[in-house]
Request: fold
Amino acid sequence: MSVASPVRETSSKASIDAIVALTAPAMGEVNAMILAMAGSNVALIPEIAEHLISSGGKRLRPMLTIASALAYGYRGSDHVKLAASVEFMHTATLLHDDVVDESDLRRGKQSARMIWGNQASVLVGDFLLGQAFRMMVDVGELSALRILSTASVVIAEGEVWQLSAAKRMTTGEADYLKVIEAKTAALFAAATEVGPVLAEAGPEAQAQMRAYGLNLGLAFQLVDDVLDYRGTAQALGKNTGDDFREGKLTLPVILAHQRGSEAEKAFWRGALEGGENDDAALLEAKRLLERHGALEATVARARGFGEKAFGAASALPASPSRTALLDVVAFCIDRVN
Amino acid sequence: MSVASPVRETSSKASIDAIVALTAPAMGEVNAMILAMAGSNVALIPEIAEHLISSGGKRLRPMLTIASALAYGYRGSDHVKLAASVEFMHTATLLHDDVVDESDLRRGKQSARMIWGNQASVLVGDFLLGQAFRMMVDVGELSALRILSTASVVIAEGEVWQLSAAKRMTTGEADYLKVIEAKTAALFAAATEVGPVLAEAGPEAQAQMRAYGLNLGLAFQLVDDVLDYRGTAQALGKNTGDDFREGKLTLPVILAHQRGSEAEKAFWRGALEGGENDDAALLEAKRLLERHGALEATVARARGFGEKAFGAASALPASPSRTALLDVVAFCIDRVN
Reply:
């Protein structure tokens, strides 16, 4: 499947090479700061933090913070601290998420809670969130503090919402989009909005980069939802089929349920309410998703948000930062191929 | 048992009446703000938050923030937001603590995790912590932000430390004091230090109120440790004997272990490592604590920290705030009687 036209303009094969190259010098400092701020005399903290850090996330969010600051000509060094804060907020969320979802794998490796237990995962998550705030406070930019602290509230709110909506088949597409806007897209939006804030680029620039991050985050999550049914564990960084096995409601399921017969609706209700689904049920789920084009439709939604993100970043003057930001959109969507 | 002399100067029967009266107008606003900031369209959030809010903690920490601001002549309204932040930080910690300790009761009522599950407790804790930061950011005072965000890191660090130290009988008195300084006293210290910060009373006043809060927090926790073996569930706000039943290492246990025979040492090791102790074991534990004067010795330590807190607040000029702060010290220690 190829990505629709404007997203395709960027480069022949979508990749994050451009943003990696653009942000490499700053990301060296971000990584050093992450290691330093994950340090503690309490040995368990750096142990768990380094497990997460070394387990090879792409560091997409902090790269976006760096790139969005550079895109507006920022020449200071505070973007490093904010980027590290964003990554810590993300890592804290992952730790707590794994506890909440009872996940065994994270990025293809055993999750922290499986090795050190739920207790340590909760508390080390709290530690990292606290360190994130300390770094933001160090920067001392109140607008950035407001944006990032608001994101932390919205993310938690989204997670609680998902908890209550997770098993309800009455959750429709619009509700689901609100959940992922909160739990995933809000951090992307905050990560990219603080760039122009640091560069003092004005409210219009801020709104533009917020729109970029928000739509990118929505596209990113929807592609993740599709990959859970179609991808490989390697591409996804966790077991495929996990969402279904755990009875998690995602957009493909919502669409297949809506479009399904009464018998199929009953299948989805049973699968989501039961929560412990076997491989045979997963095969049946994939068959129904295929029959109703639910994965295709989800990809189409993702592409729609990708277009919006692309449009927001297109307004930037031509520069390596602009190219990097545009490429990220194409990359996120191309993961389904 | 009566409290040693200087602490006794304040009033005939130690109570928090003075601080309650002093802070009543501001605490009305704090309570309104707490309710407002616990609000959310996600119904589960206000439900859990109100469960905690209505379960009748004394709100000692926010009262301390208000009183410590008033003690330095503060006339603004930002102390209300910081006090609400402090209470939210505390509530978030309680929610996560109950998950980590697998507690059934909190303040004499069923704990949130028993009603809504661990998942919701983790996530609503995250929500409240995020709201705490938002309120601090609203105040826009970077020193206060630094003090409170640092406290959030230190608390989490202390909790992780306790997790690893909890079952190790090699943890000595000095190590244990460091743990409770982090997990309990750090928030008291931050709560009282931000008062003079708001009042712009200068670094000496800040240091004084920090010392007051820190020592008060240490005394408070040690008295809690004693009450777990000697108090009533009503005075403690949770089941007595819980620490022992869960195999939690506290100062009375450390002292009884140190002073015990080899057979007694083996009893404590077994009890703490096993972690699931019955009523017969609890009776034996109480007998050993009594034999070695471990509870008395812990109260003496608490009284020592109380004296220091008292000394720090004594430096204030005579005022209703000074009386209120001094009374709180006597009250905290008098709980063992």
User: Anything to note?
Assistant: Chain B has 16 helices and two strands. The CA atoms of residues 80 and 132 of chain B lie 12 Å apart.
